[in-house]
Amino acid sequence: MKAEAMKNQDGSDIKRRANEWVEREPILEIQHLGKAFGDHQVLLDIDFKTYPRDVICIIGASGSGKSTLLRCINMLETPSSGLVLHKGKSVPATGVHTADYRSKVGMVFQQFNLFSNLTVLDNCMLGLRKVLKLSREEAKARSIQYLMKVGMAPYINAKPHQLSGGQQQRVAIARALSMEPEVLLFDEPTSALDPEMVGEVLDVMRTLAKEGLTMIIVTHEMAFARDVSTRTVFMDRGVIVEDDRPEVLFTRPREERTKEFLTRFMAH
Amino acid sequence: MGSSAPQNSLEWIMLFLDKYGVSFLKGAALTLEIAVISTLIGCVIGFMVGIVQTIELGNSDPLWKRLILKIVNLFLSVYVEVFRGTPMMVQAMVIYYGSDTLFRLNLDPIAASFIVVSINTGAYMAETVRGGIQSINAGQIEAAKALGLRHYSTMLFVILPQALLNILPQIGNNLIINIKDTSVLNVISCSELFFTTSSVVGTYYRYFEPFLIACAIYLFMTFTLSRLLRLMEKKLQGPRSYQLATDFMDDTYGNGSSVIDMKKGFGGRN
């Protein structure tokens, strides 16, 4: 897998990949997933597959259930119904297996959520030491490797509150990457950033996409979704309305609701 | 009494210091000892109670686990309510005399003092710790979960260090309160500073001067400790600035780094 990833670094074959995704085994498969908060049905019968090296962007209006879907995928929210399958096996909502599964499915949050008591380096090392049980030296080397990738290695001694939003988010990405996850989930990673910092985070994500990292990204950055994703999913009122290649979804959407959303969103 | 009886308060103070200086110091030492050690024990109790009280079990956990937790929590809240809701002086009497009457246990007044102050502090600290844990941003816990950390590691490496920093001022507060409140232990004849002062009074029937001395000693202890605690807080908060790791400065995107191979791709650990 690593050798393949290296071959793919120029990213020129993203489109080819998108066409052949059907042929591979899914990493994640979501079946009939539903989520209700009390009487409020947030997600309804979601079906959804993620294949290796997919870059899936989930778009939709606020309150359409995008973030809840993402949080159900790594069991931060317990689904009310349906299944999340990881390599064909059902993921339980709590327990040792859930923790083990989460270590393979990274998450980057809207609010960064760096551990405020730890330095940048320790933020990256914690999971490596306590979950993957790496030695101190291995964990440090690997953390620095990924911090370099996001351009944050010089800041290893800083505490989160000493960094800008964009820097914090890049560290958060490095922290997730250090675990070398099979899939990385992004929950509106640029929504809490000042406009001038959005670019640096998107640049990092663009690089990761090119290198073949499997990603599921909830975002409001339409241009990013159009240019980088291999599949774009449009959600509205708790259901997946349309799930297609970005060049199709953004230029000639099949569904009326998608059209409406895109015109409304592009107008802003 | 020297050549003649003291003429004014200053002379009385000199006389008391001269004759009973060592007694005052011994009383102060015991006060400090009880306050410091009991505050520490109280913190340990408080942390344990507070941590148990913040355990959240969901519907997916086994019934017996949830049942045990419920019962334990009931006991803990009774403990907290009883010890926060009654005066420490009364608690001292009940524990000191009660242990004898009910269990035929002849407690030493000093041992009883340690017990009373510890569990009293524990009750207050439990509430403080609970608040400290609950004040931690939920995102911190989610981030830890998302990395695959178990509850125990999340608590130990992420939540408790942050909670401890938040409640440090409250721990200091409790220590200072305890230094002053050990004075109520005179009711069980614990020879702390207040009790010692009262004994000195008994000899000369002068109240003002001995208690003025006690006052100064209490103030000295609380003031010094509050300064020390402030220093400790600053130290724990760490430096305001940070050192840039210049080794990694020129090579931020890792092109051709000699130390680490950046060509490594993604694709899971297996």
Sequence-ordered SSE layout with sheet pairings:
The complex is a heterodimer of chains A (268) and B (270).
Chain A: H1 2-7, H2 14-20, E1 28-37, E2 40-50, E3 55-59, H3 66-73, E4 81-86, E5 89-90, H4 96-102, E6 105-108, H5 120-130, H6 136-149, H7 165-178, E7 183-187, H8 195-210, E8 215-218, H9 222-228, E9 231-236, E10 239-244, H10 246-251, H11 256-267
Parallel strand pairs in A: 3-8, 3-9, 6-7, 7-8
Antiparallel strand pairs in A: 1-2, 1-4, 4-5, 9-10
Chain B: H1 9-53, H2 63-84, H3 88-103, H4 109-134, H5 138-146, H6 151-181, H7 193-204, H8 208-237
Helix pairs in contact in B: 1-4, 1-6, 1-7, 1-8, 2-4, 3-4, 4-6, 5-6, 6-8, 7-8
Q: Care to describe what's here?
A:
- The complex is a heterodimer of chains A (268) and B (270).
- Chain A is of the alpha/beta class.
- Helices cover 40% and strands 22% of the residues of chain A.
- In chain A, the strands form two sheets. A six-stranded mixed β-sheet of chain A has the order 6-7-8-3-9-10, with helices on both faces. Chain A has a four-stranded antiparallel β-sheet with strand order 2-1-4-5, covered by helices on one side.
- In chain A, helix 7 (165-178) runs parallel beside helix 8 (195-210).
- Chain B has 270 residues and is an all-alpha fold.
- Chain B has two domains: 27-238, Orthogonal Bundle (MetI-like fold), CATH 1.10.3720; 240-270, no CATH class.
- Chain B is built from eight helices and no strands.
- In chain B, helix 1 (9-53) runs antiparallel to helix 7 (193-204), helix 1 (9-53) crosses helix 8 (208-237) and helix 7 (193-204) runs antiparallel to helix 8 (208-237).
- Chain B is flat.
- Mean pLDDT of chain B is 86; it is low at 251-270.
- The interface between A and B is large, with 68 and 46 residues.
